[in-house]
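Many introductory courses stop at the sequence. We go one step further.
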Amino acid sequence: MQSADDKDIIIASQAGDQQAMSRLISLHASAVHGFILSMINDRAAVEDIAQETFIRAFLAIGKYEFRAPFRSWLFRIALNQCRDHLRKVKVRSIIHPFKRSADDTEIEYADPGQNALQQLIQDERSRALHAALQRLPESLRQVLVLRDLQEYSYEEIAALLHWRMGTVKSRLFRARKELANRLKPYLEENREKGS
């Protein structure tokens, strides 16, 4: 649900108030960036896709009708931009799992209370999770990201993706099962190292 303040900012944006639109962007930028990164795992493209998302939102803000939360409306635009990006990648015949570079240290924010070994283990787990997530089919990755990472309800996911509730639940079940299968070798390897 939107607060009265959010509604006022949206209405002001629809009236052409540039400061209100800037405020909307700043309120949702972090969530949109995180969502896009979870969907495509291509840090170099995230900023471009996020900018295109906000440009499209700005151009279409007058069409927003308050039927769904603004964040859901914005994520729908971001999802479409991710799909467009992935289609372009396929057209260019760059069909391979997205990987993070070895020097990419922005997987998760470091906890100052962790020692170097703990941070290394956390980063390795995060890389394994993201790599496994990127190998899932898009429809399974979408529902998993929305439910488990973005914490959307089943109803919100169904509305956002234009799926039936049963489809959301069955694809989420399949996504979790496939992700677990893809992570199984990593978990077994680390279990053997630990013993």
